[in-house]
Amino acid sequence: MYMGKYEMKSVLRSMMSIQRHAGYTISQVLEDAVPDQSYYGVWKLGPTVWDCNKSPVLLCVYDSIEDPAMDQCIFCGDPEERK
Q1: To which H or E segment does residue 19 belong?
Q2: CA 79 → CA 18, 38, 67, distances in Å?
Q3: Spatial contact of 47 and 23, defined as CB atoms under 8 Å apart
Q4: pLDDT tens digits, 39-54
């Protein structure tokens, strides 16, 4: 299937919107799922999304204040950059 330049831009805009909304939704789920509210507003997903069996949202989550380099997932301890 061939997509022209304008169709590709439209698809990319949609994907960016979905990703932005997913990040917001995941942060809301985390606030509800984890009773410790000390992390409120500082949880972030990394630029690469990694599976995490210990996380309530099944993705690695990082504390953007205490760990801006994303060296340790809050739940499993793995770094964002897996070498």
Answers
A1: helix 5-33
A2: 24, 21, 10
A3: no
A4: 555 777 777 788 899 9
Residue 24 CA to residue 18 CA, distance in Å, equals 10
Prediction pTM value: 0.56
- Which whole-number Å values give the CA distances from 3 to 6, 7, 11, 17, 34, in the listed order? 8, 6, 10, 20, 43
Q: How many residues does the chain have?
A: 83
Token representation of residue 3: 């997509």
- Give the whole-angstrom CA distance, residue 62 versus residue 54: 13
Distance, in Å, from the CA atom of 32 to the CA atom of 30, rounded to the nearest integer, reads 5
Distance between terminal CA atoms of the chain? Answer: 35
Burial of 5 (0-12, 13-18, 19+ CB in 10 A): exposed
What the block records as the tokens of 80 is 């964002």
Beta bridge partners of 62: 44
